[in-house]
Automatic annotation (TrEMBL), chain A:
<comment type="similarity">
    <text>Belongs to the TRM112 family.</text>
</comment>
<dbReference type="GO" id="GO:0046982">
    <property type="term" value="F:protein heterodimerization activity"/>
</dbReference>
<dbReference type="GO" id="GO:0070476">
    <property type="term" value="P:rRNA (guanine-N7)-methylation"/>
</dbReference>
<dbReference type="InterPro" id="IPR039127">
    <property type="entry name" value="Trm112"/>
</dbReference>
<dbReference type="GO" id="GO:0030488">
    <property type="term" value="P:tRNA methylation"/>
</dbReference>
<dbReference type="Pfam" id="PF03966">
    <property type="entry name" value="Trm112p"/>
</dbReference>
<protein>
    <recommendedName>
        <fullName>Multifunctional methyltransferase subunit TRM112-like protein</fullName>
    </recommendedName>
</protein>
<dbReference type="InterPro" id="IPR005651">
    <property type="entry name" value="Trm112-like"/>
</dbReference>
Automatic annotation (TrEMBL), chain B:
<dbReference type="GO" id="GO:0106335">
    <property type="term" value="F:tRNA (5-carboxymethyluridine(34)-5-O)-methyltransferase activity"/>
</dbReference>
<dbReference type="GO" id="GO:0030488">
    <property type="term" value="P:tRNA methylation"/>
</dbReference>
<dbReference type="Pfam" id="PF13532">
    <property type="entry name" value="2OG-FeII_Oxy_2"/>
</dbReference>
<dbReference type="GO" id="GO:0005737">
    <property type="term" value="C:cytoplasm"/>
</dbReference>
<dbReference type="GO" id="GO:0005634">
    <property type="term" value="C:nucleus"/>
</dbReference>
<dbReference type="InterPro" id="IPR027450">
    <property type="entry name" value="AlkB-like"/>
</dbReference>
<feature type="domain" description="Fe2OG dioxygenase">
    <location>
        <begin position="262"/>
        <end position="367"/>
    </location>
</feature>
<dbReference type="GO" id="GO:0008757">
    <property type="term" value="F:S-adenosylmethionine-dependent methyltransferase activity"/>
</dbReference>
<feature type="region of interest" description="Disordered">
    <location>
        <begin position="42"/>
        <end position="65"/>
    </location>
</feature>
Length: 126, 644
């Protein structure tokens, strides 16, 4: 699972959960795969991202350079910033053997195995 | 089960003999139905033997071909071929396999043969002439001539008597007519028949009534709905009144105590040669017994089946078929789509009988309480199980999710080529457009545009790990009823061949709502679902084409999950040789090679035309449908979440 995906995930489908976002990330194994850096593409993707959530996710993954806490005003012209964002969004691949994501309200855990989060909830949980 | 044949029927037919495999013999100039499923078989290849130089036509090629065919015949008949004329000749070509009636064959010879013998699945006929010289004349006249397109006749002489025609299967009463079936010949007079035909059958059938794929129908009283196999009693048909010409028939039905009240519904079917009706049991709850069928204009053979039991009956013109008891509630009845029936005529023996145009009137009596208490609960819509909001989730677990886990590897190996229109939709997206593939399967629509802004979801762990191992695609496990994503997230969503695995309308709507919820305003979704109709504009879908390849078994018995399937006996299993007759059904998946294959049954709700659009338009606030079309046996719709 990439942090880009984590940025969209919620546990809102669980009964009585109001927001269910962001999911608390706990990673025990992280794989970093270099991919092409395309600044023009990234400056279009960044507005779709919840930056604070991404910053927190990068911190929880550890093992990597922290992101600037806030979006730089001229981020689309800031190559260094875009590189960091690219790294966080698309190069960080989290593979958890015994890790998980956690619903911020109920504590319900979603395991990640071999890079695939299991976001399935039972019908009696909804 | 009680198999006592209905004596009334035999008397009515002038004493009929029944046998296994649907053989029927009528003594008074009638016929025996021999086999519904004749395969046109090609000759076995034979090795080149000593050639018969200088045949009657003199050409070397003809003589060689003829020699070959005669070898084939000799082998199959176990009778030697004679080089010298004998009273028995054999002809390659006109036969039961080609549907050539004996009388037509007789006419081709002058002087004619005195006896003809024909055999099931064989491409030849044996002819006995009064004199060997007559046989020689026939050979000289016919050998090398074409009798049909690309079909050449060859004639030879037999060194002995050919085998008798096989009527051993017609030995009586092995499988009788279904209990409760009765045929009343000459139920209407010739004048009445003529009157009905004159009134009800226009010369041009186009634009009148309802044109089904294989026949033309019209309803009186109430319309029969082929999607639900039911009638809506609140809505009388456009032809609410029965036509006058039918009145004497209706009155006679009551007078003769065949029915306890006047039928309220009539279906008129018009069949051309080659047209038939798929095997079916009339839905139990809306109609009383009996179901009545009056035949006009042409005779036809009707098949009755119950599991492996097969019976058949000839419906002569002007006869009335009365289906009660088992024949009404348990056995399916149907008419094969073919241009001729193979019958055993008492005078002619086994012979083909070309079909003629036929009109039938089906009379049905509406059931007031719409509840059936028959003895066959597994065939009965009143008594059998139903899909409910309570069992739907379990059903999908057992008949969809578990099956995909079981067949993941094999399924994936058959799903590699993206369909062009879906590929086009995906490739038209911008690089930074975020795409969600709901029910991504083996990920064949992921990574089609070189962008990492996409994610796939599926229920099958097996398929998800194939996505990871083959293309390292970004995927997660979730149910389409509860997508784990924030609102207004995706620029585009595709959901291909997923919704038809959801077993209730509420759940299908919920899935569409989830797609809508996670779509951003202005974003578009593309949905594909399996169509009930697998043939639109005369183009067969890939699935329908594959049906031509016969599967080893469609029988539920072949599925290893008997204990699970027994809870779902109310779901019909789709027979690959026919259209989808129902919306909710089990479709067999044959895994593995023919000698070691396994059968798995998946649940499908196949969609009617317009059903997908209706579902989408139930979303609040209503999205706008940009495009909807039929593609490869699927109904497809593309809609946009409009800006608020």
């Amino acid at each position: 699972m990439k942090l880009f995906t984590h940025n969209m995930l919620t546990s809102k489908m669980i009964r009585n959960v109001q927001v269910g976002y962001p999911l608390k990330l706990c990673a025990s194994e992280v794989k970093i795969t270099p991919t092409d850096f395309r600044p023009g593409f990234l400056s279009k993707v960044i507005p779709k991202i919840d930056w604070t959530v991404l910053v927190e996710a990068v911190n929880s993954v550890g093992n990597t350079e922290p992101l600037p806490p806030a979006l730089a005003e001229d981020y689309d012209k800031n190559d260094d910033f875009l590189r960091k964002a690219h790294h966080a969004l698309f190069e960080i691949e989290i593979e958890v053997i015994t890790g998980e994501m956690e619903c911020p309200e109920t504590g319900r855990k979603f395991p990640i195995q071999n890079g695939v989060p299991n976001m399935l909830v039972n019908e009696d949980e909804v | 089960m009680d198999l006592v044949p209905n004596l009334q029927v035999f008397e009515a037919l002038g004493g009929a003999l029944l046998g296994a495999g649907g053989r029927v013999l009528l003594r008074n100039g009638g016929f025996i139905q021999l086999d519904m499923e004749l395969e046109r078989r090609q000759a076995e290849p034979v090795e080149e033997g000593g050639s018969n130089k200088g045949g009657p036509r003199g050409t070397k090629k003809l003589s060689r071909k003829e020699h070959k065919m005669m070898n084939v015949i000799a082998k199959q008949m176990n009778v030697e071929i004679s080089q010298r004329p004998s009273e028995w000749a054999v002809i390659w070509g006109p036969s039961l396999s080609t549907g050539t009636p004996k009388r037509d064959l007789k006419k081709m010879c002058d002087p004619p043969p005195v006896e003809i013998r024909q055999y099931e699945n064989k491409m030849f006929s044996a002819m006995r002439f009064l004199d060997p010289a007559h046989a020689a004349i026939a050979k000289a006249d016919l050998s090398g001539r074409d009798f049909a397109e690309l079909q050449t006749m060859y004639v030879g002489f037999l060194g002995g008597e050919p085998p008798l025609e096989s009527i051993e299967a017609a030995s009586p009463f092995k499988v009788g007519l279904p209990e409760g079936l009765e045929l009343i010949p000459e139920f209407i007079s010739e004048e009445e028949e003529e009157n009905i035909l004159k009134t009800l059958v226009p010369e041009d059938l186009n634009g009148l009534g309802q044109s089904l794929k294989r026949r033309w129908v019209r309803h009186f009283g109430f319309d029969f709905d082929y999607d639900t196999n039911n009638v809506d009693t609140t809505k009388p048909s456009a032809y609410a009144e029965f036509p006058k010409c039918v009145s004497p028939v209706v009155e006679r039905l009551v007078e003769k105590n065949i029915v306890r009240k006047k039928p309220e519904q009539i279906t008129l079917n018009h069949y051309l040669p080659g047209q038939g009706i798929p095997p079916h049991v009339d839905t139990h709850s809306p109609f009383e017994e009996p179901i009545l069928s009056l035949s006009l204009k042409g005779s036809v053979v009707m098949d009755f089946r119950d599991g492996i039991r097969h019976s058949a009956i000839i419906l002569p013109r002007r006869s009335l078929l009365v289906m009660k008891g088992e024949s009404r509630f348990l056995w399916t009845h149907g008419i094969a789509n073919r241009t001729f029936d193979v019958l055993l005529d008492v005078d002619e023996g086994v012979t083909a009988r070309p079909r003629e145009p036929r009109l039938s009137l089906t009379f049905r009596l509406l059931k007031e309480n719409k509840v059936c208490n028959c003895r066959f609960p597994f065939m009965c819509d009143s008594q059998k199980g139903k899909i409910t909001s309570e069992n739907a989730s379990n059903l999908e677990d057992n008949l969809v999710h578990q099956v995909y886990e079981d067949i993941a590897q094999h399924f994936s190996s058959t799903r590699h080529t993206p369909w062009p229109k879906i590929k086009e939709f995906v490739q038209n997206l911008g690089q930074s457009d975020v795409l969600l593939d709901v029910g991504c399967g083996n990920g064949k629509y992921l990574q089609l545009r070189g962008s990492c802004c996409e994610v796939g979801t599926d229920m099958s762990t097996g398929l998800l790990s194939i996505c990871r191992s083959t293309k390292n695609a970004e995927v997660l496990k979730s149910n389409c009823l509860m997508l784990p994503f924030k609102n207004n997230t995706f620029d585009a969503i595709i959901c291909i061949a997923v919704l038809h695995h959801l077993s209730t309308k509420e759940r299908r709507l919920q899935a569409v709502n989830e797609i809508f919820r996670t779509l951003r305003p202005g974003g578009q979704a593309l949905i594909y679902v399996w169509a009930k109709n697998q043939e639109v504009d005369e183009t067969k879908s890939v699935y329908a084409q594959k049906q031509d390849v016969k599967t080893t078994s469609n029988d539920l018995a072949a599925d290893s999950k008997q204990d699970i399937l027994k809870n779902y006996t109310f779901l019909p299993v789709h027979n690959r040789e026919s259209d989808f007759p129902h919306n909710d059904m089990l479709v067999p998946w044959i895994k593995g090679s023919t000698d070691k294959s396994e059968v798995h049954h998946r649940f499908y709700h196949v969609f009617n035309q317009g059903e997908l659009e209706d579902l989408i338009l139930e979303i609040v606030p209503q999205p706008s449908i940009i495009d909807s079309y039929y593609d490869q046996g699927n109904w497809c719709a593309r809609f946009q979440k409009t800006h608020v």
